[in-house]
Amino acid sequence: MRSKLLKIDVSKMFTLLRYINDALSDPEKRKARNKALTLVELLLVILLLGTILAMAIPIYHRQLEKARVTKAISDIRRCEQDLTEYMMERGTFLPQTLETVRWHNRTDPWGSPYQYLKIEGAGKSVKGKWRKDRWLVPLNSDFDLYSKGKDKKSVPPLTARSSWDDVVRAGNGSYIGLGKEY
């Protein structure tokens, strides 16, 4: 029984090879074949491009998000420098708003304004608005400065999911980065 199946398969293979050989050796058929892609070749090209795009698009979005976080970190460092210069030039405390140092119209890479809260010398009304770490200890003792991140939502403790994508200033400026990494 097996030998019959094997003979049938081998004979079909030889028929297929003969057909392919005839198609390749006939000059007219070869010219027609070389002018256009076959349906199988076209499907393979589309499949390959789809696979490459399926891998490239998430990588592109990840890199774009990293670039936005880096830009927010850079902006927060620059704003921190402007606030420090303001204090040194005037010999006073921190300003009440970012408008004083001309940062009130600037937005983070996601289109939201940067958030600022003067802590140093402020009253008890500000205490509930302080940014806090996972142990609910305030991040800063001078001022809070942060971006609300991609979701444009934020709550004071960094343990909340809506604060994980925030770019925060912590440790009085010793750390500036994502809230979930602090």
- Gross geometry: rod-shaped
Query: How many alpha or pi helices?
Result: 3
Domain unit count: 2
Arrangement of strands in the largest sheet: 1-2-3-4
Spatial separation of the terminal alpha carbons: 72 Å
Secondary structure tally: strands: 4
Gyration radius, to the nearest Å?
A: 32 Å
Notes on the protein architecture:
The structure is a single chain. This protein is an alpha+beta fold. It has two domains: 2-31; 72-181, Glycoprotein, Type 4 Pilin (2-Layer Sandwich), CATH 3.30.700. It is built from three helices and four strands. Strands 1-2-3-4 form a four-stranded antiparallel beta sheet, covered by helices on one side. A hairpin with a 4-residue loop joins β3 and β4 (175-178).
Offer a few descriptive terms.
Glycoprotein, Type 4 Pilin, 3 helices, 182 residues, 2 domains, alpha+beta, four-stranded antiparallel sheet, 4 strands
Brief synopsis:
By secondary structure, this protein is an alpha+beta fold.
Present the secondary structure layout.
Blueprint: H1 2-25, H2 27-35, H3 39-90, E1 115-118, E2 143-147, E3 167-170, E4 175-178
Antiparallel strand pairs: 1-2, 2-3, 3-4
